[in-house]
User: Fold this.
Amino acid sequence: MDFRSSDTITGPRSEDVLPTTATAAVKVVIVGGFGVGKTTMVGSVSEIRPLTTEETMTQAGVGVDDNAGVETKTATTVAMDFGRISLSEELILYLFGTPGQERFWFLWNGLFEGALGAVVLIDTRRLEVSFDVIGRLEERGVPFVVAVNTFPDAPHHPVEALRRALDLPDEVPMIDCDARLRASSRDVLMTLMRYLHSLAVPLA
Amino acid sequence: MITGDLDDSERSALDLVTMVVAQAEPSPTFQPEQAAILRLCQAPLSVAEISAYLSLPFSVVTSLLSDLLATELIESRAPIVRATLPDRSLLEAVMHGLQKL
Ligand SMILES: Nc1nc2c(ncn2[C@@H]2O[C@H](COP(=O)(O)OP(=O)(O)OP(=O)(O)O)[C@@H](O)[C@H]2O)c(=O)[nH]1
Ligand SMILES: [Mg+2]
Assistant:
């Protein structure tokens, strides 16, 4: 592995350095098809410039020519961007804009298992790309809300029609948003937290 | 209110948002990757951020961190994960923080 000498590594900017009390982290994942605005949403609410973590996936394939049994290995680098919000001196929220293809999700250990919940971003021009991600979340038991990203040329459908089209249960919250706006993205996260709160039991 | 201490069996499973803090100053005796991690983690930092700043894959970073944990050069704090019965006070703390954004 090629490694840059450690003096050339730039760490966080001084204003991004966390206080020593910041030891409790939670995460939320933002999922959705290709180009629905995941990176935009991470960037609009993050207090740091969004960062990228990579993982490599090696796939073994068998050559198609006559060299029977010769294995070719291809390495694919998958990138995932993320941002951060300091909620208090102790508690930090990380937001991950997951790769559009769900088959890459397992590359990061515990990406979904440990998340508080997920935001499914949808583009009404291409609803079909949302079915798979919603199915995967349901399979994994990850609670989620659906945020409808409002692109200017996208047809506007009433939320209830979208709910039927996506075959979503009544209790799953749906909200319109503009992922470019911090306040709008923040409202989406609030909607998720309120929903999680409604699913939680009060402490005895 | 917030707890996240781990026992040894859980330590090996580093999450993207496990928080890491150095317990030593970097010195020339360390491998460059280890020294870079110790330098970055003088203040708390998540595994995801370490991976981003070092431009190293997540799996490479977790294996470097496991070595540093084994020799107690760093300390780690596991994230608060979604529990079977989620904790309302935690969610209230998250909402309170978001309101200030
Ligand atoms: N009008 C409008 N444009 C948006 C909105 N959100 C994202 N965009 C634009 O849509 C394009 C795609 O957004 P990205 O945030 O890169 O989408 P993504 O989901 O991260 O895309 P991939 O990672 O490639 O799957 C960009 O050009 C954004 O500027 C929105 O709410 N409104
Ligand atoms: Mg993106």
Observations:
- Chain A has a mean pLDDT of 89.
- The radius of gyration of chain A is 19 Å.
- The helical segments of chain A are 38-45, 128-140, 159-166, 182-199.
